[in-house]
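Tokens for chain A. Residues wanted.
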């Protein structure tokens, strides 16, 4: 359905009148597209505002060499349309960025979504007008729009973190960030490249950059655990089996989902109940299967330090057996808890350090001092470089929301509200911000699950809620403070009962100087789904509903 526009788009500047919609969705990634589809099906006028010039969100921006998903392709896709999931065929076990972006473009075309998406429109602010009970959304261009409902589909990992090193502007070479990669690609042939960071993005790109560059220097602050991705062409027999009952597969996935999907092969044994020889066999099996399923090699991996240490030692053993230079191997061995930072899945990462053109530099003890016109200085030494790649991650989960100026009731800003860490009810809604919904917000399982089914669960809940409000002629939904407080406490309690808070991860905001240290995702899938369903079945328990 097309938008109900009060005035033409061309007159829509900060000084001019605003366009009016039933719902505005910020972001055209997996979340925004699914939300658009559901709300349009209800007959609502909907506008999606997207900063990029195409759909895809994360998969639009992260085009760095080697960018690939770490959730299996058959699971990392929409389930809202049976014929879509039947007709689409994935080439590999884990899909590369280009294929996922192609899929999302296909979805946008197949469901004729582009007509309701405004590209090149970065939202700068959203203000709730209490008298009108509507949101006014402003873009950086000055364009303004109003809507009854505002859905933030801005992603968990979409606000790039670029550390502000001394001399950043002085470097004469090229600087790239993995999360804002040039669309035309980068040719590193013959270049001396430096890469800062050894998280998932770096671990995927390092082997490929190393093959191209004349020389690659990796500046590592904290070593990371990584397991082989074991990517390969998709098994067509398995694809046929899944497609024969995709709905049943999804149902099992939703019901039994272990954190990252991965086809229900979680172990049911405690590693501490096994002899050392049996443990090695178990870990070796999961190492060979490949991917993040390694975290489910035992039931106690993420809750028992002693159990976790056996996995840590197994991976360190692998690193030592792969990397020939002993000093480099030791530098690459983490001493943290496996999985408390997101586990990485790689293709030839550790092997890359055996190449003669790759050097690892420790910047933990001697942090990066400055960028210079010719390169980068650390430990009193200048490294001469032609290009520097920032693989320095994101201001995760809250960054994309807090970089906008969002104001709820009585002019309360989200920055003020979250000054000591994010507070939400169910990760979906915030006290003081009526009719604003967040897809995969802090306090929801989001990044600790397979994102696509989690996103669809949020989209369905939000869509059902909006339909209920309209049918009951209610104007606003907003959580009550007791429910929000109880939820935040519950999220913290569950997080604290695991090993997750034990290291400086982005889950805790610890990668961003000054960010409050709060464990942001909710560890509780699929119980979380039941909770959301129960809240709705009980007439929106924990929410205040109001008439116009
Ligand atoms: O970012 P990160 P990422 N000086 O935050 C270092 C998802 N993802 O883009 O650990 C020196 O993990 C920082 O060091 P430290 C996935 O969920 C998924 O790689 O803070 N170094 C770290 O090494 C992932 O977890 C996929 O000490 C600095 C690195 O930069 C998330 O995105 C692929 C520094 C940042 O690592 C983020 O991954 C890619 C400084 N001042 C990403 N500041 C897949 O699906 C930061 N660092 C496979």
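Reply:
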């Amino acid at each position: 359905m097309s938008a109900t526009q009060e005035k033409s788009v061309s007159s829509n500047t900060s000084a001019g009148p605003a366009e009016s919609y039933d719902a505005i969705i910020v972001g055209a990634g997996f979340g925004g597209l699914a939300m658009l589809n559901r709300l349009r099906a209800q007959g609502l006028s909907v506008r999606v505002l997207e900063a990029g010039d195409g759909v895809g969100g994360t998969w639009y921006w992260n085009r760095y060499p080697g960018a690939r998903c770490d959730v299996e392709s058959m699971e990392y896709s929409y389930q809202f349309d049976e014929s879509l999931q039947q007709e689409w065929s994935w080439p590999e076990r884990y899909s590369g960025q280009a294929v996922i972006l192609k899929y999302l473009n296909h979805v946008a075309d197949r469901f004729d979504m582009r007509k309701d998406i405004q590209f090149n429109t970065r939202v700068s602010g959203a203000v709730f007008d209490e008298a009108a009970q509507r949101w006014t959304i402003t873009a950086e261009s000055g364009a303004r729009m109003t809507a009854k409902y505002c859905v933030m589909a801005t992603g968990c990992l979409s606000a790039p973190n670029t550390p502000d090193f001394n001399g950043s502007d002085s470097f004469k070479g090229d600087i790239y960030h993995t999360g804002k990669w040039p669309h035309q690609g980068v040719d590193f042939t013959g270049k001396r490249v430096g890469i800062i960071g050894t998280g998932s993005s770096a671990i995927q790109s390092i082997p490929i950059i190393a093959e191209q560059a004349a020389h690659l220097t990796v500046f590592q602050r904290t070593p990371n655990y990584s397991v082989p991705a074991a990517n390969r062409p998709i098994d067509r027999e398995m694809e046929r089996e899944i497609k024969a009952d995709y709905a049943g597969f999804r149902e099992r996935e939703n019901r039994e989902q272990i954190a990252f999907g991965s086809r229900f092969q979680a172990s049911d044994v405690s590693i501490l109940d096994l002899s050392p020889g049996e443990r090695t066999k178990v870990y070796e099996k999961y190492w060979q299967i490949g991917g993040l399923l390694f975290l489910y090699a035992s039931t106690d991996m993420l809750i028992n330090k002693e159990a976790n240490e056996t996995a840590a030692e197994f991976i360190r053993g692998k690193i030592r057996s792969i990397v020939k230079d002993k000093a480099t191997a030791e530098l690459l061995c983490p001493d943290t808890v496996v999985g408390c930072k997101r586990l990485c899945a790689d293709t030839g990462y550790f092997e890359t350090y055996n190449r003669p053109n790759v050097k690892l530099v420790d910047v933990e003890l001697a942090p990066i001092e400055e960028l210079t016109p010719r390169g980068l200085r650390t430990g009193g030494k200048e490294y001469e470089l032609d290009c520097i790649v920032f693989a320095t991650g994101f201001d995760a989960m809250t960054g994309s929301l807090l970089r906008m100026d969002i104001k709820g009731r009585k002019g309360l800003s989200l920055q003020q509200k979250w000054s000591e860490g994010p507070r939400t009810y169910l990760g979906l809604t915030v006290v003081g911000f009526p009719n604003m919904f967040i897809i995969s917000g802090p306090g929801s399982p989001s990044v600790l699950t397979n994102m696509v089914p989690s996103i669809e669960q949020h989209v369905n809940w939000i869509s059902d809620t909006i339909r209920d409000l309209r049918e009951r002629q209610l104007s606003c939904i907003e959580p009550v403070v007791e429910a929000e407080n109880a939820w935040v406490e519950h999220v913290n309690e569950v997080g604290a009962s695991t090993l997750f808070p034990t290291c400086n991860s982005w889950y805790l905001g610890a990668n961003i100087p000054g960010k409050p240290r709060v464990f942001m995702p909710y560890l509780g899938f699929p119980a979380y789904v039941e909770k959301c369903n129960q809240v709705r079945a009980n007439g929106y328990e924990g929410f205040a509903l109001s008439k116009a």
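The chain is about 30% helix and 15% strand. The longest strand covers residues 144-152.
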